[in-house]
Prior knowledge:
This protein is an alpha/beta fold. The protein has helices spanning about 1-10, 25-30, 55, 75-85, 90-105, 120-125, 130-140, 165-170, 200-210; strands at about 65-70, 110-115, 145, 150-155, 175, 185-195, 215-225.
Amino acid sequence: MFRRFLDTLFPLKCVGCGIRGTLLCADCRRDLPYLPDGVCQRCASNRGARGVCRGCRQLSPTLSSIRAAFVYEGAARNAVLTLKFRSGRYLAPLMGELLGEVIATRPLEADVIVPVPLTRHRLRSRGFNQATLLAEHVAATLNATIASEVLSRQERPAQQTLGRHERLINLERAITCPQPDEVLGRRVLIVDDVVTTGATASACADALAEAGARRISVLAFARDL
Length: 225
């Protein structure tokens, strides 16, 4: 009964085309922009004409690899933006399910799942951390421990307001690991909704490596190519 009440207040709408009655219609599910096989296996971005990958050069050496389910476009982009900026936490189970389907095709191994942290101000204003919602589903899929408080983030200008080079500078020492015992000697998988330049992922990896994490990788719902 409560589910029907919620559906009356917030009727389901496809995140791709907007059709009523479902969060993702069959047509939009079929057309999801899955990340192509030809991307770099380390940074998950396109290779250049000579096979040189600009994305890898921008990542911290402490970061082993980035994996993503989708290209940041179409229904995948709508899902990320709705989740973050349009009170769309109801999309987290669907997005977690889609991540699980991708993991099943290429299994991952991790001891600890760490969501990318928000600043305290952003967490209070939004009411939730979208990366944590996704990380909970990933942890259940991998049967791994989730450590949602292991990283801390200082107040800095929002990354989306900055250029590529400015993003790298903006995050210097902005993310720290106040609970190193949770990651010491363990394989850590960082989870986020979207990876753009890789600056945030690199900053998280640097903090975890300094705390003694053994192998650090990233799983994102979408990758901006």
